[in-house]
Structure formats: structure tokens, C-alpha cells
Write a structure and sequence with these properties.
The structure holds two protein chains of two kinds.
Chain A (H helix, E strand, L loop, with lengths): L8 E5 L11 H15 L3 E5 L15 E3 L5 H11 L3 E3 L4 H13 L2 H4 L3 E3 L3 H8 L1 H10 L7 E4 L2 H11 L3 E5 L9 E3 L2 H14 L5 E5 L5 E9 L5 E9 L12 E3 L6 H18 L3 E9 L6 E7 L4 H10 L3 H9 L26 E7 L20 E7 L2 H11 L19 H9 L5 H10 L4 H8 L3 H19 L4 H9 L4 H8 L3 H11 L4 E4 L13 E5 L16 E4 L10 H16 L5 E5 L14 E4 L4 H11 L3 E3 L4 H13 L9 H8 L1 H10 L7 E4 L2 H11 L3 E5 L9 E3 L2 H14 L5 E5 L5 E10 L3 E9 L12 E3 L6 H17 L3 E11 L2 E8 L6 H8 L3 H9 L18 E7 L20 E7 L2 H11 L9 E6 L2 H16 L3 E4 L1 H10 L4 E2 L12 H6 L5 E5 L13 H12 L4 E2 L2 H16 L15
Parallel strand pairs in A: 1-2, 1-4, 2-3, 4-5, 18-21, 19-20, 19-22, 20-21, 34-35, 34-37, 35-36, 37-38
Antiparallel strand pairs in A: 6-9, 7-8, 7-9, 10-11, 10-13, 11-12, 12-15, 13-14, 15-16, 17-18, 23-26, 24-25, 24-26, 27-28, 27-30, 28-29, 29-32, 30-31, 32-33
Helix pairs in contact in A: 1-11, 5-6, 7-8, 13-14, 13-15, 14-16, 18-19, 20-29, 22-23, 23-24, 25-26, 30-35, 31-35
Chain B lengths: L3 H5 L8 E3 L4 E2 L28 E3 L2 E2 L12 H7 L4 E2 L4 H11 L15 H10 L9 H4 L5 E3 L5 E6 L4 H10 L2 E6 L4 H6 L4 E4 L10 H12 L4 E4 L1 H9 L4 E17 L4 E13 L9 E7 L5 E6 L4 E4 L14 H12 L1
Parallel strand pairs in B: 1-3, 2-4, 3-5, 7-8, 7-9, 9-10, 10-15
Antiparallel strand pairs in B: 6-8, 11-12, 11-13, 13-14, 14-15
Helix pairs in contact in B: 8-9
The chains are: A alpha/beta, B alpha/beta.
Chain lengths: ~1100, ~325
């Protein structure tokens, strides 16, 4: 069937802000979908409040709405735009659920909008647990024994029938949210109750637990005519025990044979045909390790994290093809985008092994449970390509950018464990499970024993054993040519080898090159070299002896270094920066722009973006390999966040030309001593600070300036190991942590100034001219990490004089540091004095937000700046003249992190953000809050608990307003006492820790009698610091699990209440964003 | 990645040095060759021996892990005295093969320096693959019978895979395997409901006896299915021409379009020769399946008689089961009669 000619305009739903389980992969899939629509000459409309994405640039979509992906907002856009069709499969579970909802309420029918791709009944057949089981049985595909329940008594009965342990799965959620494994009735109760709340249909599934079975996945494409193919299969190293999002995954599968492979493949094709998939889907199986018994676990009827991985792993652009199918094409009519002369209706063959490794950010969360299980906890991932498992796996570890150089021979050898401890760790895996396997092997555990404990297939354990054995062999052997080949083929980095040999990595590099042990550049061509392919999609491996391509010697290109895995503090905004830099360089006449990146969830790793794509490690060793192969004009490191930025000095030392601000100037900004000295010369103030290398000095300084102080290492982004410290005891702990993160750089402490405002400035300079993008004010007071704070343009509390000072300082500083490219400055405003906190000579988190609101693409400007071109004349106060308000609101994912506390601090914890624009502050804010999941009730009940007298005083006007607006107010004893006296009519409720006293908060939460909670923790004030207050924590955690909004800062609470008030008499605006202004 | 036990025992690969593009080989080991199904057909293998002359891989898995394994790939090849080499850049070899076509090669092992020129000379004087007669090696010497049903299918063995026999058994027919040069009269003496021309190695022109038999099968309208080499033999018998492909189709991911309903199937393939598309017009056959990539002939149907043939492997092993329905086609032809 060819393209459906009745389609003219298509609505695409995005996934909103990034959260655990729903991350940057949807920028990739949404962008590809829009690209596919655009190519066919159709109009597209996108709804997605995730401002930091490529898809919300107006490049691919004709109209972009930064609005919440909720049925109400989507309906208003459908009414306004009258699209013919809607795409639901490209915005994760958010878009899918929204689509189902729109269909159920008859809105799609009312406006005549056709669902493109898998139809609603098909979606329901996979999403509804019972329908899924029934469909699988009809298709002759086995499923696990299980029972769908809607109340606890049935859950209990089911669990007893199936015998414990059982696994609980929740309908219509992603990332396994709300699910868990219960070993007894108590655990069952907790998980089931949580599951009912998380599920939009109040339904959970109780299922036999098969943690030790293999977890195998297939990515399937199917068109309207029923042609279907399998694009990729994958195997999860940590078996069924761990959610695939948290699993280490290899593609293709490694331990199943031909019979099993095709048995599962055929079952997948039958299943998708039966449920009626159109486009792409993912099917997940459990396969017994001791027979060919298997069961289908689930089908995702949409693009997913796994499909993004499969796309990058095979070179088959699943999202693009899926969108084309949605438009009506059938598979054989579509072309293989890599070979350009074969059909897309084929199954790629790989001649490499891909290893995906999740990135977790557990150290950023206090009290969080690090154990891995059926709920996803990772915030990002990397993908490594090699020709042995050992090579791919060790590459993946380096790509994570967590300070490890591979599985073994790391700077920190990790804790030591005895046999008993390691047995425990193997049977209950956490994020260090494969390191633990290595430790167990060193302790002399047999492969069989490790398998029994961990359920990791012996094949993988044997491979880890190879790595462990090589470690000791490197220490004891001469590094001759043949041995070096063995070591490099097994993925060891020069740093690891150098550490074993007590030398430095440059020596190893020189030795290697002298002996001719160097990597080859190989193509990813979808067909294992069987046919010639013109592909620019590349990786490097030691499993080869010649390059697939050569770079013409007259071709002097530019290499742009990407940002690596998404993590807290470095997310999709840096991919936006990377991609825009590539486009900017191309638009400024650079013909050959190559990208290096290792994150499969990105647009920058789409191979049609750049001249050559290296899906590779962002390590000095690998970038040097690539520059030796490319012989480029230079390399851009200022758009890939701190990962790329940190490479700058080392690359410069090795003679690589840095395009942009020089390594010397970057160092002057990053090294806090040098930075301060420069500021002193400019007579610009900073909060008091000092670098220190030992604890005693630190203690003395802290005493001098008085607690609280901030402790942080230099050269880190997003406050890794950055902490507000309130006492000498704490200081001791955090000094150690900070030195672990960044041992090569000094650690600094600075005075933490309470009651001040924080301001961000994003700009671009070419060393002569400076363009200020905008001055961005944080709504939360200083002390909330800038990545977690709500931000507002234009500033609303700053005086004109302060704005002028900030403007002037920004220009002076940019010129003093010879900035050539993007920069970000952070200021503190305290008692009308302006202090500089830090200068980042690179793209920042807020740049997409600033760029879109002010309609000046700062990265496009930066591409001119790095090339040393003149910047266009942009009116100095252009940002002030924008009539809109723009507000950026953080998205938190604490729900997924069992035990994590949601009180905000200096260390960044949010996983993503949304931004909305509006005619007024509250217009923008109400849309922003809705976008990140806050329910904005018109009436209802609020629970207020506030620590500290000062906080209570500050919050008084807010609570009064809330009462005026007709909300019922509940409060805990002390809080109630205070507000009762001031405003009256407060109802007392009792703490969770006093369950016998009624009314109790716990009951009210479970009964859903509370609409939102204002809980200002007392740790944010000096007067009453007594460590983590358990009761407050309990309230925050419980309400989170039940999906009740909790406001933990005074500013957030105040804004929230004012927004509720505003909404009583106003309606939000629904305008599309404007394209960037042309710059010449 | 999967399917090396099936490929190594596929008689179509007889006489060849096989290079695998997937770099990690032997992960799940090798099952027990002595295990037979209820019909006495090997459960996991496609013939009774390793058919290839040598194996080239990037990395041989020294240990293997699978519930069904009996030994490692290395042990199996050692037992069957088939040499192999690992640690080479198989992608580079693949590229050489795709541009130079299938070529003569030698595996040389030596403690001392290898005299490449000498090896090249030896290779030049060796019997060329194209001129080898494989039928004496791969075809059964005597008839073999599987099952005891009344209705039977005769399989003319030009290097048949066990999977063909298994599929016939699944249809509910007795399978009778006969030598490649069995005459028409001999075939008919079994009173079969249908005949299958099996897959196998080499040039179809090297099987003149089989071609003669097929001509008579067509003439007498005996339901006949040809697979791979069998398809080429049928083609020649029906006045088409065959030719050697520059580089054959080998793999488990080849898309073929059924021209009768425009459905696309992913097929398993292993052939170095094909039927000339332009020779179909003047022949007794019409095009049935075509390769979605290079538009080569993947299946033909006789214009009048009950004779069909496919270039791919509907029996899979290794590869996808998408085209098992081809055997159902044969069944329909047989039941129609």
C-alpha cells in the first residue's frame, strides 16, 4: 500500500520532560518521525514542553507547541489546528496514554483525527494485561502464569496460588514503574497498593517470578499489509532479574541457538500480527535457561528505549521507518537508508557486538536503595560497539564517564569483600554487579557458582574471567606486539595498561604505535559487508587489520565532541547543543563536520546529521585515535557538556587544535584560584572561598566564614559531590567524597550565602564581541541547585541597576577570558550586591530555553564564534523586549528511586525539565507545572508542615492566600499552632511516626484526602539542623509514591499557590513558538 | 550469529571454506550428533558430517554455554578432522569476497615463515571448485525411508538437508530419499504423491541425470517442488537458463516478494547460481518470487503443470521459518491430484 494521500497535516505528541524510564530517546524518535513527515511534503504539528530538544526547534516541525501533553491541552490544539492524523508512538508512554485517553473520551472521533500506526485496539491489546494474555494465547504464544487483580485480597489469593516470590506488574506504566518482587505478604501489600495508584486503570498483575530466566527482546516492524520483519534482537546480561532499562544488554543475543532464536522470532511475528501492530514494537521474552520453554512478557506498541538502542545498534532507523509505515507505505516500498539501493524490508546482519550499559546516579540521592530489580532506576545509557564482548563491555564502562577506565585496573579498586558478602552481592545485584563478578572470580569462585548466585549466563562470566586473567597477565608479562594485540582486543585502555605497568598512558600509546598496534575504523552497514555500502556510520575496534574507509588528505574537517550518556546534570540540552553546532558549522561553510558520541538516545548519533559519525568513547585515547585518522582542522569541545569540556586540556597538550576558546583560557576559568585572581583584577566580587587539600585547612576556613559552607571539586558539572555542609562532622565526610570524584584537581569550599537570589547568564562571544542571550532568574532561592531550580525570563525581582551590573560583568568576564563560543555565568545577588559564582566556557543547560524564548539560536551564533567570524548585530536588550514570559520547571523522578528524598539541595537531582511560554508569569508557570506532572486543583485540601520559625514566618502570606482561595488547610502540631494563631481555621493532623494519633497523615494520604503538600524541611534553615528528619522524609516519600505533589521550597509553594489563584479567573494561552530569527 | 551447526552440516557447503561474518562463533557449543528424532532423522544436524572443508572466524568461543550442548565447536571440528582458523579480520575477507566473488583459498599453518607464492601455485593447480563433481560425496548411495504412511514424497538427494525431510514428515507424508541420479521410472516405482528436488552444492549443469528425470516429472504432471539447487535443475528442465552469481546469496535475512499477493518474506538462502530472469519469458515457467534487493529470481511456477520451485530455503535450519508455507503449497498440489 502506498502513502495515504488523504493526509495533509499530522499531529505528533512528544514525551514531555525527561524522567527515569522516559528520557532523551524520545527526542530521537520524535525528530525522526517529524523528518519522515516533512519529507513527504506534509505539515506537522508537535506538542512537547521539553524545550531542550531538537524536535521542538522549528526545523522539522511546522508548528511547535511547548504545552503539557495532557488530553485537555492536546484537545485544544486539535481544535485549533484540525490535523488529519495523529502519531502516538513517538512520545513514550506519556503520548500513548494521552492518545488512548483522547480516543476513549471520543475527542479523536469528534474532530475526525485518524490514529496513524498501531490503532487504539492494538495498543489496548498490548497494554491491558488481561487482553495481552488473551491475545498471546490466541496467537499461540505462551505467557507466564499470572492473575490480574484490582484489590489486595485477590492479589493475596493469586500470590498464594502461584507461590512466593511473585512479581507485580502495573498496567499502563513505563520503566516498570510501581512494580516489584514480593517474597511475602507484607511486601506484596506495599507493592500492590503502590501499583494501584500508579496504574491509570487501578489494575496490577501478579505473576510467577522467573528472575533466573534469560531476558530476550526483539524489535519488530510491521506495515498495514501485514508484512513484518525483525530488525534486531537483544539479550539482557542480568537475566530477567533486572528491568531491561537497568540491564546490561548485548545485541545480537549471544547465548541462544538457532532453534531458540527463530522460535522466538516466529512467535514475535505471530504475536504482532495478531494484536495488529503497525509500525514498530518491542516484544520481550523470558526464556528458560535449561530448556526451550519461553513466555512473552510484554509488547511495547511504540518506539521505546530499546528501539532507540536497536536503531543505533543496527543502523536501521526504526523511528523514521515506523513513521513512514504510519503514513501508509509498506515495507518493501521503503529504501534501506544505509545502502540506498536495497529495501528496508530486510533483517540487518551485524558483524560486531553491541553492549549497552545503563548509567545510574545513585550517589546523588540520599537513602536511595541501589539494588536493581524490576523497576528502572537508571537515568541514561551508553552503547559500545566492538568485535569481542570484552572490548564492547570495557568500552561501555569508559563511556559512562564515572571515572572508571574499564572493568579492572581502575583508580579506585573498590571495597574489598569476603566470600559471604560477595555471595550476598551476587544474589542481590546492584549497580556494581559485574565488578562483583570479577571480584568473585578473583576470590576463586567457580563460574558455575557465580551463575547460580547471579543468574548471569556462564558465557558472560567466562568473558569477564578473560578480562580478570588478562589483568594479572599484563602485570606479569612483557608488552610485546602479540600480547598487546590480545590486550587491546579485549578492550583494555592505555590507562589501564599503564596503571598495571606503573607508567603513564602516553608511554603505552607510543609503544603501541611503534609496534603497529592501532585500532581500525569499521563501518556499520546493516549487512555485514556483504554488499558495498556508502555509510558514514563508524566505530573503532582492535578486532581488525584495515580501515573500511579513508579520509581524503585534502579534506580538513571539524570534529564535534558530543556529551555522552544522559545523567543528572547533563541531559538532552547538550545533545541539542551538539546538533545545532554541527548544523551551524555546516551553514558557515564547513563541509566536513564529524561527530563523536556514545549515547544511543540522541539525535546527534543519527548518521544523517554529519559527515562522519563515530559511535565512540569520549576518552582522550579514543579521540586521539580519531584525530589521527581524520587529521582534522580542529575539534569542538564546548557543546558536549562537562564530559567534552574536560577533554580540552589533554587534547590541546597532544597538539590537537581546539576550535573555540583555547584550552589555556578554559583552564583559567575552571581552576578556581586562577579564576578568582582574574576576577580580583576586574574588581568583581565572589562569595568567600578557598581551595584546600587537607581537612585541617578546610576546618579552619569553615570556622572562619561560618557554617553553612559549600564543598565542591573543580571540573565537575551539576554538583557531583557538591554539598552544603552544616557541621564539622559532615565536613569530614564530604571532603573525602569530593576528592574521590576529582582527584587531579583541587577541592574548594565557599561560604554559602543564605537568602540570596541566583541568576544565570547565557551568552556567546568571539573574543571581540559579546552577545548576551538573556539574564535568567531563579525562582527558588540560592542553595537549590541551578539545575533543580525553576527559572524565569525576564527576571522579575531584579532591579534595573542589578541587571545592568550583571550585563556589564558578563561582558567584561567573557572578554577577559577570551571566550570564543558559548558561555554561561552564574551570579548570586545578595543585598543588592552581585557576586560571581562560576563561569562555564561551554554550552549550558539553559541555552535551548533562552534561545527559543528570545528567538536567537545561541549555538548557531556560537558556531560563528568558534570559527572566529564576526557576530551579527543583535540588539543588546533584545531579550528584554520579548513580550513573553518563559518559565523552566524541573522534572523529578524520585518515584522510580526507592527511598530517595525529594528535599532539594545543592546537588542536582532533577532528571529533566519543561519550559512553557506565556503572556504572564502565571500563564507560563501554570503550564510549566502541569507539564511536569503537578495537578493544579481548583479547590481541595492542602497539608502544610514547615520546619523552623523563620520559614513559617516567610510562608505566612502564602498560606493566607491559600485559605482565601477556599482551600482547606491541614497542618502538623507546631505548624498548626503558628498558623492558627495568625490566620485561624487550621485543622491539626498527626505525624506518620505516631500512627495511633488520629487524624493521621498516613491515612489521609492513602484515602487521597490531600491534594497537595507544602513541606519545607527544617534542614534548609540553620536554627534547627538535626540531621535528616525522619518524619518529614516519611511524608515526602509516601506522598510521592501516591502521586501527590509536594512543594519543598518556600518559593515553589508561593508560586504554586499564586498560580492556583490566577487560574481561578484566567485561562492559559496556547500559542505555537516562533522560529529562530535569521542571523547573518 | 546463530546457525553454525546447521550451516556446517549443510551439504550445499560441501567442498567450501566457509567464512562467517559474525565475529563471535561457538558461544552455545554443539549439540549431540547421535540424537535422533522418532523417524531416525538427526535432531539437530542437517547431515551426518561436517560438510565444509574449513572454517574461518574472527573469534572462536573457547568455552560454550547452553543446556543442549554436548561439546564445543572446537571439539566437534577436531573430532571430525575439519580445520579452522580464528583471529582473522573476517570483515576484510568478506569485502574481498564480495568484490572478487567466491574464490579458491587455502588454510596454511606453519611454525616457520609461510611461503605465500608456493601456496598460491599449489592453489592454482588444485581442482577448481566450479569443476568439482559433488554428487558422489553429498548424495545418498541408497534409498532411505522415513515414516510408514501410505502417502509418500520422494526426495531426490542432490545434497538434501535433514530439514527438508523433517518438513515432509510434518506434512504427514512418508519421506523417501533417493540418489541424485535416480531415473524417472525408479522414482515413480515408489508411487509418490509428489517429488522434492533438494538443495545442494555446485553448478546445476553438473546434474544432467537429475535434469532428465525432472523433465519427465513435469511432462507427467507429477507434483514437484524444487529447492535451491533443485529449483535451478527444474529451471533447466523447463527451458530456462542458469548462471553463476557474482557473489551468491548467503544468509538468513534475504527479503523475497511473493508476486501473487505482494507479501514480503524474510528467507534463508545459500546459493551461488541462479535462474536468468530474462530466460523465463521463453520458458515453461513464470516468475513467482523475486528478491526485493537485487530483483533476481527467487521462485518460479510452471505455467501449466504442478511444478513449483524456490531459490530460498523454506525448510530454514538455519534461518527463519517464514516460508514454511511452501511445503503447504506442495501439499495442495499433491492433494489436488
Amino acid at each position: 500500500m502506498p502513502k495515504n494521500e488523504s493526509l495533509k497535516k499530522i499531529l505528533v505528541l512528544g514525551s514531555g520532560a525527561i524522567k527515569i524510564g522516559e528520557a532523551g530517546e524520545f527526542d530521537y524518535s520524535g525528530s525522526q518521525c517529524l523528518k519522515a513527515i516533512h519529507e513527504d511534503g506534509l505539515k506537522s504539528v508537535l506538542i512537547n514542553p521539553n524545550v531542550a530538544t531538537i524536535q521542538t526547534d522549528t526545523r522539522f516541525a511546522d508548528q511547535v507547541y511547548l504545552l503539557p501533553v495532557t488530553p485537555e491541552y492536546v484537545e485544544s490544539i486539535i481544535e485549533k489546528e484540525s490535523p488529519d492524523g495523529i502519531m502516538l508512538a513517538y512520545g513514550g508512554q506519556t503520548a500513548l496514554n494521552c492518545g488512548v485517553n483522547l480516543d476513549d473520551s471520543g475527542i479523536l472521533q469528534k474532530y475526525g483525527v485518524k490514529v496513524l500506526g498501531t490503532q487504539i485496539p492494538g495498543i489496548k491489546n498490548t497494554e491491558d494485561r488481561q487482553l495481552f494474555k488473551d491475545s498471546m494465547k490466541e496467537a499461540g504464544v505462551p505467557v507466564l502464569k499470572s492473575k490480574t487483580v484490582t484489590n489486595f485480597d485477590d492479589a493475596k489469593k493469586a500470590a498464594e496460588e502461584l507461590t512466593y516470590p511473585v512479581i507485580i506488574r502495573v498496567a499502563y506504566t513505563l520503566g516498570g514503574r510501581g512494580g516489584g518482587v514480593a517474597h511475602n505478604e507484607i511486601e506484596l501489600h506495599e507493592i500492590v497498593e503502590r501499583g494501584f495508584k500508579a496504574s491509570i486503570v487501578g489494575q496490577v498483575l501478579i505473576e510467577e517470578y522467573i528472575g533466573h530466566w534469560k531476558q530476550i527482546e526483539y524489535e519488530i516492524m510491521q506495515d498495514y499489509d501485514g508484512n513484518n520483519i525483525v530488525v534486531c534482537n537483544m539479550e539482557n546480561v542480568l537475566a530477567m532479574k533486572v528491568h531491561t532499562g537497568d540491564n546490561i544488554v548485548v545485541a545480537p543475543s549471544q547465548t541462544i541457538d538457532n532453534h531458540e532464536y527463530h522460535m522466538l522470532r516466529s512467535a514475535g511475528l505471530r504475536a504482532t500480527k495478531h494484536v495488529g501492530i503497525v509500525g514498530e514494537c518491542n516484544i520481550q521474552y523470558a526464556l528458560a535457561p535449561d530448556s526451550d520453554r519461553f513466555a512473552a512478557i510484554e509488547i511495547n506498541p511504540r518506539l521505546s528505549r530499546s528501539s532507540a538502542l536497536a536503531s543505533k545498534a543496527t543502523g536501521y532507523p526504526l523511528a523514521y521507518m515506523s513513521a513512514k509505515i504510519g503514513l501508509g507505505y509498506n515495507l518493501s516500498e521503503l529504501e534501506n537508508r544505509i545502502t540506498k539501493n536495497t529495501t528496508a524490508c530486510f533483517e540487518p546482519s551485524l558483524d560486531y557486538i553491541v553492549c549497552k550499559h545503563p548509567r545510574w546516579d545513585f550517589p546523588k540521592f540520599e537513602l536511595v536503595n541501589r539494588k536493581l530489580g524490576p523497576t528502572m532506576k537508571s537515568v541514561g545509557e551508553v552503547m559500545a560497539i566492538g568485535r569481542t564482548f570484552e572490548e564492547s563491555f570495557q568500552k561501555a564502562i569508559r563511556m559512562l564517564d564515572i571515572g572508571n577506565d574499564g572493568l579492572v585496573l581502575n583508580r579506585n579498586s573498590g571495597k574489598t569483600y569476603n566470600e559471604e558478602q560477595i555471595e550476598e552481592k551476587l544474589s542481590h545485584p546492584d549497580d556494581r554487579i559485574l565488578y562483583d563478578v570479577a571480584v568473585a572470580l578473583k576470590l576463586g569462585f567457580s563460574v558455575e557458582k557465580i551463575y547460580k548466585l547471579s543468574s548471569v549466563d556462564p558465557w558472560f562470566i567466562e568473558k569477564i574471567k578473560n578480562i580478570v586473567n588478562l589483568e594479572s597477565k599484563i602485570k606479569s608479562s612483557e608488552l610485546d606486539e602479540s600480547f598487546l594485540w590480545d590486550v587491546k582486543k579485549s578492550g583494555f585502555s592505555d590507562k589501564q595498561i599503564a596503571r598495571a605497568k606503573d607508567t603513564n598512558s602516553d608511554e603505552i600509546r607510543d609503544l603501541r604505535k611503534k609496534l603497529g598496534v592501532t585500532p581500525s575504523v569499521k563501518q556499520i552497514d546493516t549487512l555485514a559487508a556483504e554488499w558495498p555500502a556508502v555509510t558514514n556510520y563508524l566505530y573503532l575496534t582492535y578486532g581488525g587489520h584495515s580501515n573500511d574507509i579513508s579520509v581524503p588528505s585534502d579534506e580538513k574537517g571539524v570534529i564535534v565532541v558530543g556529551a555522552g550518556p544522559y545523567r543528572i546534570g547533563s541531559s538532552v540540552e547538550f545533545d541539542w547543543g551538539t546538533v545545532n553546532m554541527v548544523w551551524g558549522l555546516q551553514e558557515n561553510g564547513e563541509k566536513n563536520v564529524s561527530v563523536v558520541n556514545c549515547n544511543p538516545e540522541t539525535v546527534s548519533t543519527d548518521y544523517d546529521i554529519c559527515t562522519r559519525l563515530y559511535f565512540e568513547e569520549l576518552t582522550q585515547e579514543r579521540i586521539l585515535d580519531i584525530t589521527e585518522f581524520e587529521n582534522p582542522k580542529g575539534i569542538v569541545t564546548c557543546v558536549g557538556g562537562q564530559t567534552a569540556n574536560n577533554l580540552t586540556p589533554g587534547l590541546a597538550e597532544h597538539g590537537i587544535n581546539i576550535i573555540g576558546t583555547s584550552a589555556h583560557d578554559v583552564d583559567r576559568a575552571e581552576d578556581r584560584s586562577k579564576f578568582s585572581a582574574e576576577l580580583d583584577k576586574l574588581h568583581i566580587q565572589q562569595p568567600k572561598w578557598q581551595a584546600f587539600s587537607n581537612l585541617n585547612e578546610a576546618r579552619t576556613f569553615a570556622q572562619e566564614v561560618g557554617f553553612p559552607v559549600i564543598v565542591r571539586p573543580s571540573y565537575v558539572l551539576s554538583g557531583a559531590a557538591m554539598k552544603v555542609v552544616w557541621s564539622q562532622e559532615e565536613l569530614k565526610t564530604y571532603v573525602k567524597e569530593a576528592t574521590d570524584v576529582s582527584p587531579d584537581h583541587p577541592v574548594v569550599i565557599s561560604k554559602f550565602m543564605l537568602n540570596s537570589l541566583e541568576v544565570d547568564v547565557d551568552g556567546v562571544s568571539n573574543g571581540k564581541q559579546v552577545v548576551i542571550g538573556a539574564i535568567v532568574e531563579h525562582i527558588d532561592s540560592a542553595g537549590v541547585h541551578s539545575g533543580d531550580a525553576m527559572m524565569c525570563i525576564p527576571p522579575w525581582r531584579l532591579s534595573n541597576k542589578t541587571i545592568e551590573t550583571i550585563n556589564e560583568y558578563s561582558k567584561k568576564i567573557a572578554l577577559t577570558f577570551n571566550v570564543k563560543g558559548p558561555f554561561n555565568l552564574q551570579f548570586l545577588v545578595h543585598d543588592d550586591h552581585v557576586y560571581v559564582i562560576e563561569l562555564n566556557i561551554r554550552a549550558s543547560r539553559s541555552m535551548p530555553f533562552v534561545s527559543k524564548l528570545v528567538k536567537t539560536n545561541l549555538i548557531s551564533l556560537a558556531s560563528k564564534a568558534v570559527l572566529g567570524k564576526t557576530l551579527p548585530d543583535i540588539p543588546e536588550n533584545k531579550w528584554k523586549k520579548i513580550h513573553n514570559y518563559g518559565i523552566k520547571v524541573p522534572q523529578f523522578s524520585f518515584m522510580a528511586l526507592d527511598g530517595a528524598d525529594i528535599a532539594l539541595g545543592v546537588e542536582m537531582q532533577s532528571t529533566g525539565e519543561a519550559a512553557c511560554f506565556g503572556d504572564s508569569f502565571y500563564d507560563a508557570l501554570s503550564k510549566g507545572l502541569t507539564s511536569v506532572g503537578y495537578n493544579l486543583p481548583a479547590t481541595g485540601t492542602a497539608l502544610v508542615t514547615v520546619g523552623g520559625a523563620q520559614n513559617k514566618e516567610k510562608l505566612l502570606p502564602t498560606i493566607a492566600k491559600l485559605k482565601q482561595s477556599g482551600f482547606k488547610i491541614l497542618a502538623t502540631e507546631h505548624t498548626a499552632e503558628f498558623f492558627e494563631e495568625k490566620i485561624g481555621d487550621i485543622e491539626i493532623v498527626h505525624k506518620i511516626s505516631e500512627p495511633d494519633r488520629k487524624p493521621n497523615i498516613a491515612d489521609l494520604l492513602y484515602e487521597r484526602k490531600i491534594d497537595f503538600i507544602i513541606n519545607i524541611p527544617s534542614t534548609s534553615t540553620l536554627e534547627k539542623y538535626v540531621g535528616m528528619l525522619d518524619d518529614e522524609y516519611q511524608i515526602r516519600r509516601k506522598s510521592l509514591e501516591l502521586g501527590i505533589p509536594v512543594l519543598t521550597t518556600i518559593e515553589l509553594a508561593d508560586s504554586f499557590v499564586k498560580t492556583l489563584e490566577w487560574l481561578k479567573t484566567n485561562k492559559t494561552t496556547k500559542d505555537p513558538i516562533q522560529p529562530y530569527d535569521e542571523i547573518n | 550469529m546463530v546457525g553454525y551447526t546447521e550451516a556446517l552440516t549443510d551439504p550445499s557447503y560441501n567442498g567450501q571454506i566457509l567464512t562467517l561474518t559474525y565475529p563471535l562463533v561457538g558461544n552455545y557449543g554443539v549439540p549431540d550428533p547421535s540424537e535422533l528424532d522418532s523417524d531416525g532423522i538427526s535432531k539437530f544436524f542437517e547431515s551426518d558430517m561436517i560438510q565444509i572443508r574449513g572454517l574461518v572466524v574472527h573469534e572462536l568461543s573457547q568455552t560454550a554455554s547452553h543446556w543442549n550442548l554436548k561439546m564445543t565447536l572446537d571439539e566437534w571440528m577436531f573430532n571430525e578432522k575439519v580445520p579452522g582458523i580464528s583471529g582473522v579480520d573476517t570483515r576484510e575477507i568478506t569485502k574481498k569476497l564480495r568484490s572478487g566473488g567466491v574464490m579458491m583459498a587455502a588454510l596454511v599453518v606453519s611454525d616457520s615463515e609461510i611461503d605465500v607464492d608456493k601456496v598460491k601455485k599449489e592453489l592454482e593447480s588444485a581442482t577448481h571448485y566450479d569443476s568439482e563433481q559433488f554428487m558422489d560425496t553429498v548424495s545418498t548411495k541408497e534409498e532411505k525411508v522415513y515414516g510408514n504412511e501410505n502417502n509418500s514424497v520422494v526426495v531426490i538427494d542432490t545434497g538434501a538437508k535433514n530439514a527438508i525431510l523433517r518438513n515432509i514428515r510434518e506434512l504427514g507424508y512418508k519421506a523417501i530419499l533417493v540418489p541424485w541420479n535416480t531415473s524417472y521410472e525408479k522414482v515413480m516405482s515408489y508411487n509418490p504423491k509428489g517429488v522434492v528436488l533438494s538443495s545442494g552444492p555446485g553448478d546445476p549443469q553438473k546434474c544432467p541425470d537429475t535434469i532428465d528425470t525432472v523433465k519427465k516429472l513435469i511432462e507427467n504432471n507429477i507434483p514437484t517442488l524444487g529447492i535451491c539447487l533443485g529449483a535451478q535443475i527444474i529451471g533447466i528442465a523447463g527451458n530456462t537458463e542458469t548462471y553463476k552469481l557474482k557473489y551468491g546469496h548467503r544468509g538468513q535475512n534475504k527479503p523475497c516478494v511473493n508476486l501473487e499477493n505482494n507479501q514480503v518474506y524474510v528467507t534463508s538462502q545459500n546459493h551461488g547460481y541462479g535462474i536468468k530472469p530474462e530466460s523465463l519469458e521463453k520458458s515453461d515457467f513464470k516468475l513467482w518470487f523475486t528478491n526485493a534487493d537485487d530483483k533476481t529470481v527467487e521462485g518460479i511456477k510452471h505455467k501449466k503443470q504442478n511444478c513449483v520451485a524456490v531459490q530460498f530455503h523454506p525448510e530454514a535450519a538455519p534461518g527463519p521459518f517464514d516460508c514454511k508455507f511452501i511445503f503447504e503449497e506442495l501439499k495442495q498440489l499433491m492433494e489436488k491430484n
